[in-house]
Amino acid sequence: MPVITRDVFLPHPVQTVWAALTDPDQLAIWLMPNDFQPVLGHRFTFRTDPAPGFDGIVHCEVLELIPTTRLVFSWMAGKVDTRVTFALAEEAAGTRLRLRHEGFGLTQLPVRMLLSVGWKRILRTRLPAHLDTRQASTV
């Protein structure tokens, strides 16, 4: 099965990165508006602009939650029924974040390619910018 993987280093404490992943207000800033709650089994949605074949709603459920270490949720949109994993590891000068988005069917190559580019931009630009802004506002 095709899988999207991303690995980024963020020069921020693991608790700060974890908060960006699990606080719905922060998540809305760097990813999408949502009704996420960091509770195992919680069903939630991400909302974005609709596109052909996509109503703009991603249906999710929290499948695994290990504070400051691992967050796994389902990701269902249109005909895509996948799973997203964020794994965090504390490093000397910050946090290593590993994303794994898996479960794409062989016929879903265009969707996987679109999401692959999106995750790259989000994890290398939007999330770091959000974390930098939060750090600047607390200094």
Would you write up a description of this structure?
The protein is an alpha+beta fold. 33% of the residues lie in helices and 37% in strands. The chain has a six-stranded antiparallel β-sheet with strand order 1-6-5-4-3-2, covered by helices on one side. Helix 1 crosses helix 2. The longest helix has 30 residues, at 109-138. It is globular. The protein starts with a strand and ends with a helix. The mean pLDDT is 95.
* End-to-end Cα distance: 45 Å
Q: What's the number of helices? A: 3
Low-confidence stretches: none
Mean pLDDT: 95
Binned, the helix content reads 25-40%
Read across the widest sheet, the strand sequence of neighbours is: 1-6-5-4-3-2
Q: Name the structural class.
A: alpha+beta
Biggest pleated-sheet summary: 6 strands, antiparallel
Work out the radius of gyration.
Answer: 15 Å
Query: Outline, from the CA principal axes?
Result: globular
List how many beta strands DSSP finds.
6
Query: In what range is the share of β-strand residues?
Result: 35-45%
- Helix-strand topology string: EHHEEEEEH
